[in-house]
C-alpha cells in the first residue's frame, strides 16, 4: 500500500490530488493513475454498514450511471478491512469500488482523518469528506463534514459543471 502526500499542508482546491494505490473490495487495488483523464469523486466515510455511511454509499451507487454520463468515476474510502468492505458491498448491492485505507495514509493526505468528538470525548477518526478531482488530476472541490442527505446529488451537479 502506498500513498504519496503532496505536502503536509491541508489539501486545498486547485492542488494536485495526492496519489494513492490501495486494496479494494473484490481484490486488486485502486490507484489515482487508474483515473487519468477522468473526473473522480472520492467519498471518505467513517465506517461500513453504519446508517449514514450506508445511505451515502447507496446514494452514490444509485447515481453511478449519471456520474458515468458526466465522465466521472466514484470511489468510496474508509479504514475498514477489505473483507468488511466486501460484506458492505454485498449486503447493499453497492456498485462503486470501496477502498480500504487501514493505515490512514490516504485519509490523512486528503484531510479526512482528524480529531472528532462524541459524548464529550475526543478521538481520532474519519471526518466524512468528499473530494472531486478534475480530469487533469487537480482537486476541483472539497466538501468537509458532509451531511449525507442530498450530498451525492450536489456532488453530481459539481461534476457536471466541470
TrEMBL record:
Domain Thioredoxin: 11-162
InterPro entries the record matches: AhpC/TSA (IPR000866), Peroxiredoxin_AhpC-typ (IPR024706), Peroxiredoxin_BCP/PrxQ (IPR050924), Thioredoxin-like_sf (IPR036249), Thioredoxin_domain (IPR013766)
Keyword field: Antioxidant, Disulfide bond, Oxidoreductase, Peroxidase, Redox-active center
EC number: 1.11.1.24
Source superkingdom: Bacteria
Cross-referenced CDD domains: PRX_BCP
Pfam family, one: AhpC-TSA
Catalytic reactions on record: a hydroperoxide + [thioredoxin]-dithiol = an alcohol + [thioredoxin]-disulfide + H2O
A cellular component annotation (GO) from this entry: cytoplasm
UniProt enzyme class: oxidoreductase
Active site: 53
GO biological process per UniProt: cell redox homeostasis; cellular response to oxidative stress
One MF term in the entry's GO annotations: thioredoxin peroxidase activity
Subunit relationships: Monomer.
Family, similarity comment: Belongs to the peroxiredoxin family. BCP/PrxQ subfamily.
Task performed by this protein: Thiol-specific peroxidase that catalyzes the reduction of hydrogen peroxide and organic hydroperoxides to water and alcohols, respectively. Plays a role in cell protection against oxidative stress by detoxifying peroxides and as sensor of hydrogen peroxide-mediated signaling events.
Name listed for the protein in its UniProt record: thioredoxin-dependent peroxiredoxin
Annotated source species: Bradyrhizobium macuxiense
Amino acid at each position: 500500500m502506498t500513498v504519496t502526500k503532496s505536502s503536509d499542508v491541508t489539501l486545498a482546491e486547485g492542488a494536485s490530488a495526492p496519489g494513492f494505490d490501495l486494496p479494494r473490495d473484490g481484490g486488486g487495488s485502486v490507484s489515482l493513475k487508474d483515473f487519468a483523464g477522468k473526473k473522480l469523486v472520492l467519498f471518505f466515510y467513517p465506517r461500513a454498514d453504519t446508517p449514514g455511511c450506508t445511505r451515502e454509499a447507496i446514494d452514490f451507487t444509485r447515481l453511478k450511471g449519471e456520474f458515468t454520463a458526466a465522465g466521472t468515476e466514484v470511489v468510496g474510502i474508509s479504514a475498514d478491512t477489505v473483507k468488511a468492505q466486501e460484506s458492505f458491498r454485498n449486503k447493499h448491492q453497492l456498485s462503486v469500488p470501496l477502498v480500504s485505507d487501514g493505515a490512514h495514509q490516504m485519509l490523512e493526505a486528503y484531510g479526512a482523518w482528524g480529531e472528532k468528538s462524541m459524548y464529550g470525548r475526543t478521538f481520532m477518526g474519519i471526518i466524512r469528506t468528499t473530494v472531486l478531482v478534475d480530469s487533469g488530476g487537480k482537486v476541483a472541490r472539497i466538501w468537509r463534514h458532509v451531511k449525507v442527505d442530498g450530498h451525492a446529488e450536489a456532488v453530481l451537479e459539481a461534476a457536471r459543471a466541470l
